[in-house]
Amino acid sequence: MKIDAVTIFPEYFAPLQLSLLGKAQENDIIDIAIHNLRDYTEDNHHSVDDTPYGGGAGMVMKPEIWGQALDPLMIPDTDLIILTPAGKVFDQKMAHELAQASHLIFACGRYEGIDARVGQYYAQASFATQGIRVREVSIGDYVLGGGEVAALVMIEAITRLLPGVLGNPESLAEESHVEEGFLEYPNYTKPKIWRDLEVPEVLLSGNHGAIAKWRAEQAAARGED
Ligand code: JCH
Predict the structure, then answer these.
(1) What is the pTM of this model?
(2) How far apart are CA 161 and CA 166, in angstroms?
(3) Residue 103 forms beta bridges with which residues?
(4) How far is residue 173's CA from residue 176's CA, in Å, rounded to a whole number?
(5) Distance from Cα 94 to the centre of ligand 1, integer Å
(6) Which string of b and e fits 19-48 if b means at least 16 CB within 10 Å?
(7) What residue ranges of the chain have pLDDT lower than 70?
(8) How far is ligand 1, taken at its centre, from the CA of residue 31, in Å?
(9) DSSP assignment, residue 181?
(10) Which residue, 28, 22, 46, is CA-closest to 36?
(11) In 60-207, alpha helices (H)
(12) Whose CA is nearest to atom 9 of ligand 1?
């Protein structure tokens, strides 16, 4: 999977070199390129923002710069993801959908966001017929300073679903329960007693039927709070 991210803060993406995401890149499962939006400015001050039409607080990102940055990335079969607090909320189901994509572009705005015509432009029929889709996505109902952290969250959640990324496919099979509305049960490891707290007896019993029943009960109980 090819992944592009466009941002005025490329340094935010340093964690992509670590752990699971770093390995997925080394193993050519994902190919990530980070693009500095300011490289596409043409004025002396490298400005990317301007005052909002209609007035109001804050600044809005200029559409021309985004067009210059995105045009060369818009190849057939691309999902353009515009991060915004007003977008459709990212969940495990959307992660699975996006894990099927061949090319993702994350447009990471700052200030009050990107001029609305950028999304409108690439959502036109002339792009749709080439397999270019535009999605406005939020990662949850809270306001971040920009799209970068939201893009990181999505890239990690999507990448771990790609074939060959997780060594152990059992964890993915068990996780599919999460998507079906089942919640996880509490986990324990050694030692058997830690600071006077004991591991539930049933987990030491070797009775796999009883263990499965207990875990199902615990998972259901977690959903109640
Ligand atoms: C973003 C902002 C609108 C502040 C600028 C670009 C995503 N789930 C989620 N929360 N926040 C974001 C997000 C994504 C992209 C951008 N900002 C800051 C945007 C505002 O209006 C109230 C305020 C935030």
Answers:
(1) 0.95
(2) 8
(3) 2
(4) 5
(5) 19
(6) eebebbbeeeebebebbebbebbeeeeeeb
(7) 168-182, 225
(8) 26
(9) T
(10) 46
(11) 63-70, 92-98, 117-122, 125-128, 148-159, 169-179
(12) 85
